[in-house]
Every structure is written in structure tokens, then in C-alpha cells.
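Example 4.3 (complexes with small molecules)
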Amino acid sequence: MIKKIKIGNLTLKNNLFLAPLAGITDSPFRTICLKGGAGLVWAEMVSSQALKHENKRSNKMLFIGEDEHPVAMQIFGSELESIAISTKKADEFGADIIDINAGCPVKKILKSNSGAALMYDEILLGKIIATAVKSTKKPITLKTRIGIKQGQISGDKLAKIAESEGASAVCIHARYVSQVHSGEPDLEALNKVCNAVKIPVIANGGVENFETAKKMFETGAQAVMIGRGAIGNPSIFKNIIDEANGKIPKPLTLENQLKLFLQLVESNTKYYGEKMGILRSRKVVGYWIRGFDNSATIRQEFMKATTLAEVRQVISEMIS
Ligand SMILES: Cc1cc2nc3c(=O)[nH]c(=O)nc-3n(C[C@H](O)[C@H](O)[C@H](O)COP(=O)(O)O)c2cc1C
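Answer. The structure with flavin mononucleotide bound is encoded below.
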């Protein structure tokens, strides 16, 4: 189940990846997930239009740290010129893979004819992939969904389009657009996609442990991506790999979990500045302490902290 995988000209040490999560899979978190054993980490989606217009915030989203490889950058958009520009930019910033988003169901993205809207326009989708492929020597991938709604599987057709336009792999979120981000993934439909193409299929949706990862691999997928299961649990990659190799995974102790979270807060403050770094960390603190007896107290105290020194104080009190 766990093995090396080749995507285009890139060889990855394993086939268990971090999925893109807007607002979460930024440079500091990606670095922690690579340390947690991920074979490849995916950046949050960036607007190709914003990159074309040199938007500062979007440019910063392309930043890749020295110890942050291999990494896939994801762009969304529907205009070919901006796709070409942003693909080249992501390449220049050091992305190992450039991925096209054709699965995001958020209204604002759909309105711009991007994300899951591209699932309705196969001709445009094909042109977007062909444009991206022409703009770089790095592998291009497509991330899309199994279909629009139950009974309407289109992931296989979209994967074939991606393959014929030169994509090196296709990532399939095995939920329908109508399911947004919840409900059971459709593994039968996923199997259909896996049989439709020769390029690797990277499967995703609801993977939270060894059992759910195994089920995904059993569909014929060559790699699996983990999204929310990695928030607050970046060792999930190592744990699943260990279990696949017959080892007993060692969950982190509360102390080590909090120490790792502190490392993330420190990286966030370094990357975004103290105020923004702490605000970003507040968004995910709940995930890092879920399951612990005194999680409500830890969360309350953390929310009061406004400086890194205060965060360190709160965490050291919780550990002692
Ligand atoms: C908060 C959030 C943000 C997301 N952002 C992105 C994104 O930027 N690009 C993308 O392709 N998918 C995005 N997704 C979808 C995930 O990559 C993934 O396909 C989905 O969460 C299912 O995987 P999971 O069940 O393991 O979380 C997002 C999902 C969530 C919940």
C-alpha cells in the first residue's frame, strides 16, 4: 500500500500526501506535515487572476521554505493568460508540482467560472490543462471531484481529459460537489476513475486513519491525500505508514502534542508577524487539543494570549 511513486519526472518517497486546505496548508503547516512523514504536501489554492495582477498576499502564498519540499502549488482560475502566468510564477517560486483546482464548491469561486464550475465546461478545462502544461516543465496535476451529484459520475471523463492534455496525475476528491465536504466518499465511483486512466490517481476524502486509508488504496488509487485528518495531527502520515508496515503506531503524549503546537505557533509568528501568526494559530487550536480531558480550559487560556511570550507561558503551564 505505501510505496515510492513517480509523478511526471518527480519521484516521491511515499504515496501519502497532505491535501490542500485554504487557510490551513500554508508554509509553516506544510513544513510540520513533511516532518510528520507526508510524501508530498499541497499548498492552499491561489487565484491566478490575483497572481497575474501581482497581488502581494497571493504572491506570498507561493513562498516555499528551504526545508519544504516536495510541495505542490495549486492555482484556480478560468482565463488562459492568467493560468500561463501563474503556472510560470509557481514554477519560479520552486513548486515541484503545479495543480489546477477544478473541484472547489465555494460560491465566490464558482462565480468566477473556476473550481468546480470547470467540471461543467470540459473544453475549457482541457484548454486550461494544456496551457499549464505548455507553461512549465514541472508536472501538472488536476484536482477535481468524482461528479456533480450522486448518480452523475464525471470524474472518469475529467481524468481522461487531464491525461490527454498532458497532466501527470489526477487528484480525485471522492465526494460529489453536492456533498461539499461531508458524507461518505463514493469508493465505487473512485474505482471507475482509477480504471479510466494510466496516470496516477491520488484519492482523497474522509481519510483519518490506517483503515480509511487502506480502503482508499483498495480502489486502485496509487496515492492518498489527507485533509482535515492532518490538522492538529501531522504525525498521521507516519502513524499510517507504520501501521501499513506492521508496526504499532505511537500516538503523541499531551506534552509532545502541545510542544509541537508551540512549534507551529512560533513558525506562524515568524512567517506572518506576531499578531497575525497568533490569530492564524487560534483558528486551529481546537484541532490540536481535541480528545484531551482539559481541552476546554487550554483553549480558553490560549484565546486570551496575544503575544508569543504569553502563548509560551500558557503552554508551559499546561505541560507542567
Ligand atoms: C477548510 C477547507 C479548505 C479547503 N481548501 C481547499 C483548497 O484550497 N483546494 C482544494 O483543492 N481543496 C480544498 N479543500 C478540499 C480538501 O483538499 C479535501 O479534498 C477535502 O477536505 C476532503 O478531504 P478530507 O475529508 O481528508 O478533509 C478544502 C477543504 C476544507 C475543509
